Amino acid sequence: MTMLSNYLYSLSQTPHRLRKRMLATWTPDQEFNQVRQRSGADMKRKLKWYDLIALGVGGMLGVGVFVTTGPVALHQSGPSVFISYIIAGISALLSSLCYTEFAVQVPVAGGAFSYLRLTFGEFMGYFAGANILMEYVFSNAAVARSFTEYLSFAFGENNPNVWRVEVHGLPKDYNMLDFPAVALILLLTLCLCHSTKESSILNLIMTVFHVIFFGFIIVAGYYNGSSKNLVNPKGIAPYGVRGVLDGAAIVYFSYIGYDSASTMAEEVKDPNKSLPIGILGSVLITTLLYCLMALSLCMMVPYNKISEKASYSMAFIKISWNWASNIVGAGASLGIVASLLVAMLGQARYLCVIGRARLVPSWLAKVHPSTGTPLNATVFLGFCTATIALFTELDIIIELISIGTLMVFYMVANALIYRRYVITNHTPPLHTLLFLFLLSLASLCFSIVWKFKQQWWGLLLFGAIMITITTFFQHMVPCNNNLVQQQYANCWYVPFMPWPPSMSIFLNVFLMTTLKTLSFQRFALWACFITMFYVLYGVHSTYQAEEIENLGGVNQVVMNLSVPNLQTKVEIQVH
């Protein structure tokens, strides 16, 4: 009863605690030193720039080509699916610029969570972190199920469900149990618990073989394919420009993975050099390979005959290269393993840093002293991913993943502009907030006009408004790059401010509005759930860790939440 009464008392204090904690921020020095110490042991700095490129490329390749290319070519873009990849790649590149500046200046494992918590406060960081975790867990489950499909082709089976167990009592799309996917996830979880560097070496080896294998598919596709398939039966863009852009929003799922490199910042030897090369290089290499692979598929088979599942293996069967289908199945399986390895590496580090902030139970933040890995977070998320992979079909979760990813990248772009102009250059926050609001509003209006096929002049009007307000802001609000160099010791930073993050904001908003209404409904349910968790648990846990213990030196907390004593004082910044 005491525990219950204490918790009820905490709930009665919710409004006060929300006011104290929602906008609470940390400085980069606090995030890098004091908060990181809560994990006990430090993560070991062993990675170099080529490790990051391999992690980024390996993380993205298996996801994109083998999971989304076939369905998008069949239903959205047709042969112009490679253009969808280019558009999504440009958006990912702009977002990666924002990630890179943050990662170099704040080289901790928290990625978007840490960047937004430093800039906009605790709740925005938590909201982004929860969405990134949802994206990782769901996408890893989806990719693991694709592994089973391609592995069956590697062993000469032409039925992608041959190794799945159908349970008639379960609802449709949840009744095909995938035990090979579960086994793969559990095996990789054990590997990641052992060591980051060894996992990185394994990924590097698999990625090298994977790129060679990609070369085989590209050459074989061009050799056996025909350029006529790019225009037959209904032209290169049978669903029009709208289909190409709708496809771009879905294939954005394929670029999940480059942000994994930013989560490895605590384990990089030279962050200032390695992070820009690793993050930007992996996005550029992956975009090129995506386009070549998409063209190869559409040249081998007319878009309306592409298989929705195991598209590349089925394409080789249709051109009577059955032996190549087996090779593709094996190579795709290897690529999917590499992408899973990287994604599961990143997701554990996100959860570890969220645990440091006490927004989830603190035992998830513990780093094993001998392996230097976030052991508890790795095991917990591995179990969650395996559970979802056992039941859930791929098409149910792809669009939910895309909207969550786009939302987080949109938030990071806003945070970069605010941090550069307000926190670094000390300009009045109202000017920057007004610019961000007007830019987002104009982007949304442009996107709505496009989505509902309104008058073309509306596109011109809102497009002109976006360009005008960005140009006006650039000239009226100063941004002194020398201050950035002085504050962050000549670290890498995004050039041509504020244009790159502004373009990222527009593209993320535009691509989000092309998704189906059901995606927004599912996302709204998820947003309500994580907000309720914050109100019922997170805010009370962080309040006790940061406010009561820091200000009063209290050793016994009034709620059954296990948190260590801290000697640091939280910095409250309300901009």
UniProtKB/TrEMBL annotation:
Organism for this UniProt entry: Cicer arietinum
Tagged with keyword Ubl conjugation: no
GO cellular component, as recorded: plasma membrane
Family: Belongs to the amino acid-polyamine-organocation (APC) superfamily. Cationic amino acid transporter (CAT) (TC 2.A.3.3) family.
Phylogenetic classification of the source organism: Eukaryota, Viridiplantae, Streptophyta, Embryophyta, Tracheophyta
Protein name: Cationic amino acid transporter 6, chloroplastic-like
Top-rank taxon, per record: Eukaryota
Chain's gene name: LOC101499822
InterPro entries listed in its UniProt record: AA/rel_permease1, CAT_C
Subcellular location: Membrane
